Amino acid sequence: MAEPPGAAAEDAWGKVGPGSGRAGPPALFMENARKSSIVSRANSIGSTSASSVPNTDDEDSDYQQESYKESYKDKRRRAHTQAEQKRRDAIKKGYNDLQAIVPTCEQQDFSISSQKLSKAIVLQKTIDYIQFLHKEKKKQEEEVSTLRKDVMALKIMKVNYEQIVKAHQDNPNEGKNQISDEVKFNVFQGIMDSLFQSFNASISVTSFQELSACVFSWIEEHCKPQTLRDVVIGVLHKVKSQLY
């Protein structure tokens, strides 16, 4: 008698024979579940391990940045140190040059001859020496001005003598008339009288110091070449009018 189709299917999937060696549907489901659990646990362990491993790229980047910052600071510190040392060397060279140029820095006292001059002393001696040079310059300028005045006076006297020589050459007979000593004395007396009038009006005799100061002042004021020339010309005209 033939078996119904449903029974054959149930025998194939629902019954397990002791020696068949095949697992039915429940056993297969259990096996798949176990494999899925193992795979899930493996993935979980892998993700945990990956998260626990440090990120070496980020650490290398941070280390490079810190190294760059330290290197930049070292360079700036080194540049600042070099600039400061250069400035100190320049200042030291300047003080050494001052000591070599200023004579008073070399003439030290015996009490401090074994000691090095301080910067304050070098600067003070330099200031004193500069002031001394200014005074010497002013004194030399005054001497030059006096020499220029003397040169101008000599030029005026030269012109006067040239005029006298020319006048004598134009009138040769005028030199034949001899002038007596009395006439020469009159000329000298006239010059001295004119000078004494200005001298007496300008000189004070309160003290010798004031007298000395007034004498030099009178010489500078009333004994200028042009002033003396005018005095002499006036006296000569006066004496000539008396003779002729």
Shape descriptor reads: rod-shaped
Structural class: mainly alpha
Q: Supply the number of helical segments.
A: 8
Helical content stands at: over 70%
Radius of gyration: 63 Å
**pLDDT < 50 stretches:** 1-23, 49-53
Largest sheet: none
On the 0 to 100 scale, the average pLDDT is: 75
**What is the percentage of strand-forming residues?**
under 5%
Number of strands: 0
Along the chain, the helix and strand elements come as: HHHHHHHH
Head-to-tail CA distance between termini: 205 Å
Domain BHLH: 75-133
Organism: Catharus ustulatus (Russet-backed thrush)
Pfam family, one: HLH
Biased composition (Basic and acidic residues): 81-91
Distinctive features:
single chain; mainly alpha; 80% helix; 0% strand; rod-shaped
What's the helix and strand layout?
Blueprint: H1 5-14, H2 25-52, H3 56-101, H4 103-106, H5 119-170, H6 181-202, H7 208-222, H8 225-243
Helix pairs in contact: 6-7, 6-8
Could you describe the 3D structure shown?
- This protein is mainly α and 244 residues long.
- It has eight helices and no strands.
- Helix 6 packs across helix 7.
- The longest helix has 52 residues, at 119-170.
- The protein is rod-shaped.
Give a summary of the structure in a few sentences.
It is built from eight helices and no strands.
